[in-house]
Design a protein that fits this description.
By secondary structure, the protein is mainly beta. Helices cover 12% and strands 38% of the residues.
Length: 122
């Protein structure tokens, strides 16, 4: 029974599957004065996902850089907690966003303004 269900899922998934892209990971470290987002510039294909992982002991609020607040397909306000520091307003230390529209997207941490990054979506 399990084999039949698994095989049916595999056939359905392979018939409906479009192109797949790897999820790219951006980590957030403790050094807010040098390179807080690693990498701080990411080039990716439209349809790819970026996953942020907060490895620091601080809270971060990812927001679009000024002037890009309403840019379609960009990043929206995204809170990240330190691992084990989840709250109602900062519910997770990791999150992923899929970028479906080509463009250049600048973002920063609202709490730590020197933390900046950019995504180039081809």
């Amino acid at each position: 029974m399990v084999l039949a269900v698994g095989l049916a899922w595999l056939l359905t998934a392979s018939c409906n599957a479009g192109p797949t892209y790897p999820t790219l990971v951006v980590t957030i470290g403790d050094d807010f004065n040098t390179i807080p987002f690693t990498p701080d510039t990411v080039e990716l294909t439209a349809g790819s996902a970026i996953q942020w992982e907060n490895l620091s002991n601080a809270y971060h609020l990812l927001v679009p850089d000024s002037g890009e607040l309403y840019k379609p397909g960009g990043i929206s306000q995204t809170p990240l907690s330190p691992v084990g520091g989840e709250t109602r307003d900062f519910p997770a230390s990791s999150t992923a966003i899929t970028f479906g529209i080509r463009g250049i997207y600048h973002y920063r941490c609202e709490i730590h303004p020197s933390m900046r990054g950019v995504f180039i979506v081809n």
